[in-house]
Amino acid sequence: MSKLRRFGRFWYDFIVGDDWIVAAAVVAAVVATTLLAHHGRNPWILMPLAVTATLGLSVRRVAIRARRERRSGGS
Amino acid sequence: MHVVLVIAAAFAASTVEMVEALTIVLAVGTTRGWRSAGWGVAAALAALTVIIAALGPALSTIPIDALRLFVGTLLLIFGLQWLRKAVLRASGLKDKHDEEAIYAAEVALLQSHVPRPAHDWYAFTVAFKGVFLEGLEVAFIVVTIGGTQHSVGLAALGAALALFVVLVAGIIVHQPLARVPENTLKFGVGVMLTAFGTFWSAEGAGVSWPGSDAALLCVVVFVLLLSFGLVELLRRSGVRGSLAGSQ
Hints:
The complex is a heterodimer. By secondary structure, chain A is mainly alpha-helical. Chain A has one domain. Chain A has helices at about 5-15, 20-35, 45-75. The relative contact order of chain A is 0.10. The longest helix of chain B has about 30 residues, at about 1-30. By secondary structure, chain B is mostly helical. In chain B, about 80% of the residues lie in helices and about 0% in strands. The termini of chain B are far apart. At the A-B interface, helix 2 and helix 3 of A face helix 3, helix 5, helix 7 and helix 8 of B.
Protein backbone atom coordinates (compact mmCIF):
# COMPACT_ATOMS: atom_id res chain seq x y z
CA MET A 1 0.00 0.00 0.00
CA SER A 2 1.40 3.40 -0.95
CA LYS A 3 2.18 5.96 1.74
CA LEU A 4 -0.52 8.28 0.40
CA ARG A 5 -3.15 5.53 0.58
CA ARG A 6 -2.05 4.58 4.08
CA PHE A 7 -2.27 8.23 5.10
CA GLY A 8 -5.77 8.53 3.63
CA ARG A 9 -6.83 5.24 5.23
CA PHE A 10 -5.59 6.41 8.64
CA TRP A 11 -7.63 9.62 8.51
CA TYR A 12 -10.71 7.80 7.17
CA ASP A 13 -10.57 5.21 9.97
CA PHE A 14 -9.76 7.90 12.51
CA ILE A 15 -12.64 10.23 11.68
CA VAL A 16 -15.28 8.12 9.95
CA GLY A 17 -14.75 4.78 11.74
CA ASP A 18 -16.81 1.62 11.22
CA ASP A 19 -20.02 3.16 9.90
CA TRP A 20 -19.70 6.01 7.38
CA ILE A 21 -23.44 6.69 7.64
CA VAL A 22 -22.94 7.98 11.20
CA ALA A 23 -20.39 10.57 10.04
CA ALA A 24 -22.50 11.57 7.02
CA ALA A 25 -25.66 11.93 9.14
CA VAL A 26 -23.86 14.09 11.73
CA VAL A 27 -22.47 16.41 9.03
CA ALA A 28 -25.92 16.66 7.38
CA ALA A 29 -27.58 17.47 10.73
CA VAL A 30 -24.98 20.12 11.54
CA VAL A 31 -25.40 21.73 8.09
CA ALA A 32 -29.22 21.74 8.48
CA THR A 33 -28.95 23.22 11.99
CA THR A 34 -26.55 25.94 10.76
CA LEU A 35 -28.83 26.86 7.84
CA LEU A 36 -31.96 27.04 10.02
CA ALA A 37 -30.14 29.00 12.75
CA HIS A 38 -28.94 31.54 10.19
CA HIS A 39 -32.51 31.99 8.91
CA GLY A 40 -33.82 33.21 12.24
CA ARG A 41 -34.84 29.85 13.77
CA ASN A 42 -33.56 28.22 16.95
CA PRO A 43 -33.55 24.52 15.96
CA TRP A 44 -32.04 23.17 19.21
CA ILE A 45 -34.17 20.03 18.93
CA LEU A 46 -32.64 19.05 15.59
CA MET A 47 -29.30 17.67 16.88
CA PRO A 48 -30.87 15.44 19.61
CA LEU A 49 -33.32 14.14 16.99
CA ALA A 50 -30.47 13.47 14.56
CA VAL A 51 -28.53 11.62 17.28
CA THR A 52 -31.59 9.46 18.04
CA ALA A 53 -32.19 8.61 14.38
CA THR A 54 -28.52 8.02 13.55
CA LEU A 55 -27.73 5.78 16.52
CA GLY A 56 -31.04 3.93 16.17
CA LEU A 57 -30.57 3.24 12.47
CA SER A 58 -26.91 2.29 12.85
CA VAL A 59 -27.54 -0.37 15.54
CA ARG A 60 -30.65 -1.56 13.69
CA ARG A 61 -28.55 -2.26 10.59
CA VAL A 62 -26.21 -4.40 12.68
CA ALA A 63 -29.16 -6.25 14.26
CA ILE A 64 -30.64 -7.00 10.82
CA ARG A 65 -27.27 -8.27 9.61
CA ALA A 66 -26.90 -10.46 12.71
CA ARG A 67 -30.36 -11.93 12.14
CA ARG A 68 -29.48 -12.70 8.50
CA GLU A 69 -26.18 -14.31 9.51
CA ARG A 70 -27.95 -16.42 12.12
CA ARG A 71 -30.56 -17.58 9.59
CA SER A 72 -27.99 -18.43 6.94
CA GLY A 73 -25.89 -20.21 9.60
CA GLY A 74 -28.88 -22.23 10.80
CA SER A 75 -30.15 -23.31 7.36
CA MET B 1 -17.47 43.68 47.30
CA HIS B 2 -16.49 44.33 43.69
CA VAL B 3 -13.31 42.24 44.15
CA VAL B 4 -15.25 39.30 45.56
CA LEU B 5 -17.85 39.48 42.79
CA VAL B 6 -15.30 39.48 39.97
CA ILE B 7 -13.36 36.55 41.49
CA ALA B 8 -16.58 34.62 42.24
CA ALA B 9 -18.01 35.17 38.73
CA ALA B 10 -14.76 34.11 37.04
CA PHE B 11 -14.43 31.15 39.44
CA ALA B 12 -17.98 29.89 38.82
CA ALA B 13 -17.88 30.30 35.02
CA SER B 14 -14.37 28.80 34.74
CA THR B 15 -15.31 25.84 36.97
CA VAL B 16 -18.13 24.88 34.58
CA GLU B 17 -15.75 24.92 31.58
CA MET B 18 -12.94 23.11 33.44
CA VAL B 19 -15.26 20.38 34.69
CA GLU B 20 -16.26 19.78 31.06
CA ALA B 21 -12.59 19.44 30.07
CA LEU B 22 -11.85 17.23 33.10
CA THR B 23 -14.75 14.90 32.23
CA ILE B 24 -13.36 14.33 28.75
CA VAL B 25 -9.77 13.85 29.92
CA LEU B 26 -10.80 11.43 32.70
CA ALA B 27 -12.97 9.46 30.29
CA VAL B 28 -10.29 9.15 27.61
CA GLY B 29 -7.39 8.64 30.02
CA THR B 30 -9.14 5.87 31.97
CA THR B 31 -10.25 3.96 28.88
CA ARG B 32 -7.41 4.58 26.41
CA GLY B 33 -4.43 5.15 28.68
CA TRP B 34 -3.00 8.19 30.43
CA ARG B 35 0.16 8.63 28.40
CA SER B 36 -1.34 9.84 25.12
CA ALA B 37 -4.20 11.63 26.90
CA GLY B 38 -1.57 13.40 29.02
CA TRP B 39 0.32 14.45 25.89
CA GLY B 40 -2.96 15.76 24.47
CA VAL B 41 -3.53 17.85 27.61
CA ALA B 42 0.07 19.12 27.57
CA ALA B 43 -0.12 20.04 23.86
CA ALA B 44 -3.42 21.85 24.39
CA LEU B 45 -2.02 23.79 27.35
CA ALA B 46 1.07 24.72 25.32
CA ALA B 47 -1.09 25.87 22.38
CA LEU B 48 -3.29 27.86 24.76
CA THR B 49 -0.26 29.51 26.38
CA VAL B 50 1.08 30.58 22.97
CA ILE B 51 -2.31 31.91 21.80
CA ILE B 52 -3.03 33.76 25.06
CA ALA B 53 0.48 35.23 25.18
CA ALA B 54 0.29 36.30 21.52
CA LEU B 55 -3.24 37.70 21.50
CA GLY B 56 -3.86 38.85 25.06
CA PRO B 57 -7.05 40.93 25.21
CA ALA B 58 -7.47 40.49 21.44
CA LEU B 59 -8.56 36.90 22.23
CA SER B 60 -12.17 37.94 21.79
CA THR B 61 -11.55 38.18 18.02
CA ILE B 62 -11.16 34.36 17.72
CA PRO B 63 -14.30 32.88 16.10
CA ILE B 64 -15.26 30.67 19.04
CA ASP B 65 -18.51 29.52 17.37
CA ALA B 66 -16.63 28.16 14.35
CA LEU B 67 -14.28 26.33 16.73
CA ARG B 68 -17.23 24.92 18.70
CA LEU B 69 -18.84 23.78 15.45
CA PHE B 70 -15.68 21.98 14.28
CA VAL B 71 -14.77 20.41 17.64
CA GLY B 72 -18.41 19.56 18.43
CA THR B 73 -18.97 17.84 15.07
CA LEU B 74 -15.83 15.72 15.40
CA LEU B 75 -16.62 14.82 19.03
CA LEU B 76 -20.15 13.83 18.04
CA ILE B 77 -18.88 11.54 15.27
CA PHE B 78 -16.33 9.97 17.67
CA GLY B 79 -18.92 9.72 20.43
CA LEU B 80 -21.59 8.08 18.27
CA GLN B 81 -19.11 5.50 16.94
CA TRP B 82 -18.07 4.73 20.51
CA LEU B 83 -21.65 4.63 21.80
CA ARG B 84 -22.76 2.42 18.91
CA LYS B 85 -20.19 -0.21 19.87
CA ALA B 86 -21.11 0.13 23.57
CA VAL B 87 -24.82 -0.40 22.80
CA LEU B 88 -24.00 -3.43 20.63
CA ARG B 89 -21.81 -4.89 23.42
CA ALA B 90 -24.40 -4.28 26.14
CA SER B 91 -27.15 -5.88 24.05
CA GLY B 92 -25.04 -8.95 23.26
CA LEU B 93 -24.62 -8.19 19.55
CA LYS B 94 -20.90 -7.56 19.90
CA ASP B 95 -18.67 -9.82 21.95
CA LYS B 96 -17.97 -8.38 25.41
CA HIS B 97 -14.88 -10.53 25.67
CA ASP B 98 -13.15 -8.28 23.17
CA GLU B 99 -11.41 -6.79 26.18
CA GLU B 100 -9.99 -10.14 27.22
CA ALA B 101 -8.62 -10.67 23.72
CA ILE B 102 -7.10 -7.18 23.75
CA TYR B 103 -5.61 -7.85 27.20
CA ALA B 104 -4.11 -11.15 26.00
CA ALA B 105 -2.64 -9.37 22.96
CA GLU B 106 -1.17 -6.67 25.24
CA VAL B 107 0.42 -9.31 27.49
CA ALA B 108 1.84 -11.15 24.46
CA LEU B 109 3.22 -7.86 23.15
CA LEU B 110 4.90 -7.11 26.47
CA GLN B 111 6.35 -10.61 26.71
CA SER B 112 7.70 -10.47 23.14
CA HIS B 113 9.64 -7.25 23.96
CA VAL B 114 8.30 -5.69 20.78
CA PRO B 115 8.08 -1.92 21.32
CA ARG B 116 4.51 -0.85 22.13
CA PRO B 117 2.77 1.53 19.70
CA ALA B 118 4.28 4.88 20.62
CA HIS B 119 1.12 6.89 20.52
CA ASP B 120 -2.66 6.61 20.70
CA TRP B 121 -3.73 9.44 18.41
CA TYR B 122 -7.37 8.98 19.34
CA ALA B 123 -6.74 9.62 23.05
CA PHE B 124 -4.37 12.48 22.19
CA THR B 125 -6.81 14.22 19.85
CA VAL B 126 -9.89 13.91 22.07
CA ALA B 127 -8.00 15.14 25.16
CA PHE B 128 -6.39 17.96 23.14
CA LYS B 129 -9.68 19.17 21.69
CA GLY B 130 -11.49 19.08 25.02
CA VAL B 131 -8.80 20.97 26.92
CA PHE B 132 -8.07 23.42 24.09
CA LEU B 133 -11.69 24.42 23.53
CA GLU B 134 -12.53 24.70 27.22
CA GLY B 135 -9.24 26.45 27.94
CA LEU B 136 -10.03 29.04 25.29
CA GLU B 137 -13.46 29.53 26.81
CA VAL B 138 -11.87 30.08 30.24
CA ALA B 139 -9.53 32.64 28.64
CA PHE B 140 -12.57 34.38 27.10
CA ILE B 141 -14.28 34.40 30.50
CA VAL B 142 -11.23 36.00 32.12
CA VAL B 143 -10.94 38.60 29.35
CA THR B 144 -14.70 39.32 29.30
CA ILE B 145 -15.42 39.45 33.06
CA GLY B 146 -12.08 41.05 33.86
CA GLY B 147 -12.17 43.39 30.86
CA THR B 148 -15.62 44.81 31.58
CA GLN B 149 -14.67 45.48 35.21
CA HIS B 150 -11.08 46.56 34.38
CA SER B 151 -9.76 43.76 36.63
CA VAL B 152 -8.32 41.03 34.42
CA GLY B 153 -5.94 40.05 37.26
CA LEU B 154 -8.83 39.36 39.66
CA ALA B 155 -10.70 37.36 37.01
CA ALA B 156 -7.51 35.37 36.33
CA LEU B 157 -7.25 34.70 40.08
CA GLY B 158 -10.84 33.35 40.04
CA ALA B 159 -9.95 31.09 37.08
CA ALA B 160 -6.76 29.90 38.84
CA LEU B 161 -8.79 28.98 41.96
CA ALA B 162 -11.22 27.07 39.73
CA LEU B 163 -8.31 25.19 38.12
CA PHE B 164 -7.00 24.20 41.57
CA VAL B 165 -10.42 22.95 42.76
CA VAL B 166 -11.08 21.03 39.52
CA LEU B 167 -7.58 19.46 39.56
CA VAL B 168 -8.07 18.26 43.16
CA ALA B 169 -11.51 16.87 42.21
CA GLY B 170 -9.91 15.09 39.23
CA ILE B 171 -7.24 13.49 41.42
CA ILE B 172 -9.91 12.31 43.91
CA VAL B 173 -12.24 10.92 41.21
CA HIS B 174 -9.50 9.32 39.10
CA GLN B 175 -8.84 6.33 41.43
CA PRO B 176 -12.45 5.12 41.86
CA LEU B 177 -12.99 5.52 38.12
CA ALA B 178 -10.17 3.06 37.41
CA ARG B 179 -12.13 0.35 39.28
CA VAL B 180 -15.24 0.65 37.09
CA PRO B 181 -15.53 -2.31 34.64
CA GLU B 182 -14.13 -1.38 31.22
CA ASN B 183 -17.30 -2.03 29.23
CA THR B 184 -19.31 0.15 31.62
CA LEU B 185 -16.71 2.87 31.42
CA LYS B 186 -16.72 2.77 27.62
CA PHE B 187 -20.51 3.06 27.66
CA GLY B 188 -20.13 6.15 29.86
CA VAL B 189 -17.47 7.65 27.60
CA GLY B 190 -19.69 7.15 24.56
CA VAL B 191 -22.56 8.90 26.35
CA MET B 192 -20.36 11.82 27.45
CA LEU B 193 -18.66 12.37 24.07
CA THR B 194 -22.01 12.18 22.25
CA ALA B 195 -23.64 14.61 24.69
CA PHE B 196 -20.77 17.12 24.55
CA GLY B 197 -20.59 16.80 20.76
CA THR B 198 -24.35 17.37 20.43
CA PHE B 199 -24.22 20.40 22.72
CA TRP B 200 -21.16 22.07 21.17
CA SER B 201 -21.98 21.40 17.53
CA ALA B 202 -25.49 22.88 17.96
CA GLU B 203 -24.07 25.88 19.85
CA GLY B 204 -21.44 26.40 17.17
CA ALA B 205 -24.14 26.19 14.49
CA GLY B 206 -25.86 29.17 16.11
CA VAL B 207 -28.39 27.45 18.40
CA SER B 208 -29.27 28.88 21.82
CA TRP B 209 -29.98 25.97 24.15
CA PRO B 210 -32.96 26.47 26.48
CA GLY B 211 -31.46 26.98 29.94
CA SER B 212 -28.03 27.83 28.47
CA ASP B 213 -25.18 25.65 29.87
CA ALA B 214 -27.60 23.75 32.15
CA ALA B 215 -29.01 22.14 28.99
CA LEU B 216 -25.82 20.05 28.77
CA LEU B 217 -26.99 18.01 31.78
CA CYS B 218 -30.32 17.38 30.06
CA VAL B 219 -28.50 16.28 26.88
CA VAL B 220 -26.38 13.84 28.95
CA VAL B 221 -29.54 12.35 30.53
CA PHE B 222 -31.23 12.21 27.12
CA VAL B 223 -28.32 10.33 25.48
CA LEU B 224 -28.12 7.98 28.48
CA LEU B 225 -31.85 7.15 28.28
CA LEU B 226 -31.65 6.75 24.50
CA SER B 227 -28.75 4.31 24.84
CA PHE B 228 -30.45 2.25 27.57
CA GLY B 229 -33.62 2.21 25.47
CA LEU B 230 -31.76 0.91 22.41
CA VAL B 231 -30.00 -1.78 24.47
CA GLU B 232 -33.37 -2.91 25.84
CA LEU B 233 -34.97 -2.93 22.37
CA LEU B 234 -32.12 -4.99 20.93
CA ARG B 235 -32.25 -7.43 23.86
CA ARG B 236 -36.00 -7.90 23.42
CA SER B 237 -35.59 -8.49 19.69
CA GLY B 238 -33.71 -11.64 20.67
CA VAL B 239 -30.85 -11.19 18.22
CA ARG B 240 -27.70 -12.41 19.95
CA GLY B 241 -24.20 -13.53 19.13
CA SER B 242 -21.06 -11.78 18.02
CA LEU B 243 -20.92 -10.61 14.44
CA ALA B 244 -18.19 -11.41 12.03
CA GLY B 245 -15.91 -8.52 11.13
CA SER B 246 -15.30 -5.31 12.99
CA GLN B 247 -18.92 -4.20 13.33
